[in-house]
Every structure is written in structure tokens, then in C-alpha cells.
Amino acid sequence: MTVYPYRSACPKSIWCNLINSADSEIVFADYTNYFLWLEHPNLVTLLEWKARQGCKIWFVVGDPESDMTRRREEAENAPLAVSTRIRITLSAIERLRDVAGVEARFGDEHLGMSVFRFDSEMLVTPHLAKLVGHDSPMLHLRRHQDDGLFDRLAQHASELWRNGRDVWERPQVLGGGSC
Q1: What sign does the CA torsion over 176, 95, 69, 66 have?
Q2: How many Cα atoms are found within 13 Å in the side-chain-facing hemisphere of 48?
Q3: Core-most of 1, 107, 144, 178, by most CB within 10 Å?
Q4: pLDDT mean over 119-141
Q5: Cβ pair 140, 9 in contact under 8 A
Q6: Predicted model pTM
Q7: Please, which pLDDT band fits residue 108 given cuts at 50, 70 and 90?
């Protein structure tokens, strides 16, 4: 396990290597996933290619119109609102809407922790009170055993997925420009 004091301290090369090396499953369970599109400008193209190669890609994002999102916006008090950051992600993943293997769901249960899974590796951000994700710590985990920390967090991400609502059932939420 590797630990970074801030998500923003995790080298971009780690993210690139994890995304590029994943063959069967990529999960982005982050409330906004906003930073992905800034740090990886060709991510949509890469994810489309990976999905066409058989990699399952899941996004779990917050609902930009939910009470949970409004409360988070108040707590963060950041110039770029949580709902805006979510809409940027929704705009980006809209381009993947018709790609088999790519799915997206709304879920408000993961506000306190982000889980990014790449086959048998994972990046996890436990969010600290009133801080945006890049200011919270990040753990880089590898699966070494059954029912270890990796499996517990993978189960958490699966639960978020099961309890989520299909993003593409509410197309009006996707308004706004692309990033």
C-alpha cells in the first residue's frame, strides 16, 4: 500500500498506468469525478477503446440536483460548485453513452469516500470534512488476499453501484457545455 497525504500528490503517471493496464474492470466511484477530465484530456477516447476491448467501465457520481449535493456545496464553499463539477463529468461521459460496457449511475452514499478500481488495484480517497477531494489523503491498494481491505472496499463500490440510479434515465441533467 502506498499513501499520499493529498489526492493531488498522487502522480499523474500512476493514474495513467492504472487506467491503461486495466483489462476487465474500471470503476470511478467519486462524487464528481471532475478532476479526471482535467488531468487526462483523452480519457473519453481511451475509455471508449478499453470498453470496445471488453473492459467494463462504471461511473458512480452524485446527483447534481440532490439535497446531498446542495449540502456538500455549502460545506465546501468552493468557487466551482459540486453540481457544476458533476455536470462536467456527465457531459464527458455522455459521449460514452452508446458504448457497450460503459454505464453510469447516480448515488449519494459515497460522499465521504471515493473508490477508483482498476482490476486488482485501487485508489481510495477518504474525504476529510469541508475539504474538496484533492485536499484529502489517498491510498493506493493492491489485492493480495480474499476478504482483505481491497475486497471490502470493492464491495463498498459494488454496493454504491447496486443502489444507484441510471444517469441516462434523466437526460435533462446533462445540460451545459463539454469540458
Answers
A1: positive
A2: 12
A3: 107
A4: 85
A5: no
A6: 0.89
A7: confident
55, 48, 53: which is closest to 22 by C-alpha? Answer: 55
**CA gap 82, 154 in Å, rounded:** 25
Please, what are the domains in the chain? 2-168 (3.30.870.10)
d(CA 123, CA 141): 6
CB-facing half-sphere around the CA of 21: CA atoms within 13 A: 12
164: exposed, middle or buried (Cβ count in 10 Å: 0-12, 13-18, 19+): buried
DSSP for 102-114, please give it. Answer: EEEEE-STTTTEE
User: What integer is the mean pLDDT of 62-72?
Assistant: 92
Mean pLDDT within 132-137: 76
The residue-averaged pLDDT of 29-43 equals 92
SS (H, E, C) 3-16: EECCHHHCCHHHHH
pLDDT exceeds cutoff 50 at 179: no
> How far apart, in whole angstroms, are the C-alpha atoms of residue 151 and residue 40?
27
